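ok so i was messing around last nite and threw this chain in just to see what happens. nothing serious, just curious
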Amino acid sequence: MLPDELSEYFKSTGEQSFRSKQVFSWLHKGVPDFSEMTNLSSDLRNKLDDEFFITKPGLIEKQISKTDGTIKYLLRVEENDTVECVFMEHVHGNTLCISTQIGCKMGCLLCASALSGFKRNLEASEMLDQVLFAGKDACKRISNVVLMGIGEPLNNFDNVIKFIKLVSDPNGLNIGVRHLTLSTCGIIENIDKLADYDVQLTLAISLHAPDDDTRSYLIPANKNTGIESLIDASERYFNKTGRRVTFEYSLIDGINDSPEQAQLLSGIMKKTTGHLNIINLSNIPETGLIPSSKKSTKIFTKILDNNGVNYTIRRSMGADIEAACGQLRHRKNFET
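result:
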């Protein structure tokens, strides 16, 4: 519940208004039960226990990378529902990658999220639970959250907006909205809707190809939009929010890493205010896709350099622990 929702509840029951802040603070410390809210009367704790419940994720599997300490969690959010989240430690702070749906409808070829099908949207509380659980388990403050795990965040728009309000609330975890990143394959109408909210988060668009034929092969949703419309939407987002869009580009051997495609990508980036992230493709055996060779990557990025494109080569983390979105969940589903 949002602070104003809690406040309305306590007002309706005749309780003093400060109780809502007390309860909100306890919830965002991750208490699993109302009985632990020790500054509330026992009568009030019993009343809350009768009328409400606190969601509690359960740990199914935890993997820790031997190379960089990245932690991947598979959590149970309901009896038969599972989600993944990934904790990454950086010099600039600790980042958690969270899931927004159980499964995914988008069917992007370079992602494992849709391999086990789509089941449902996650509630805002179930997204927040991933942050609370991982922070408590890792014994580290999480300073950045990326909505890049299983699911398409913009297909779960209302719950994602509510999660953003919850996780950034000063009386809760107080993670600033500018420390949140939302990744989308490109739901244009909801990119515009997000811009209207002006929530000041970083928008990351999974581009992964500079031409519509290749992008539609990798990301089926592109057939309904096209790259040109996506670029236009990103510029509208920038103009409304002042926040520069990030374009994600995973280099895939023989698919999107040719010199010709590097030239096309350079042309696209000259039309935008956005920034380009070059990503090392995660190895997902089921897709049949493999990362570009070092030689192809060098040629590709050299062309970007020659064309004056600003880009970052994103460091891969957790490669030894089924790092790609959905891999761990898919394996567990397959085993059972």
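not much to say yet. The radius of gyration is 21 Å.
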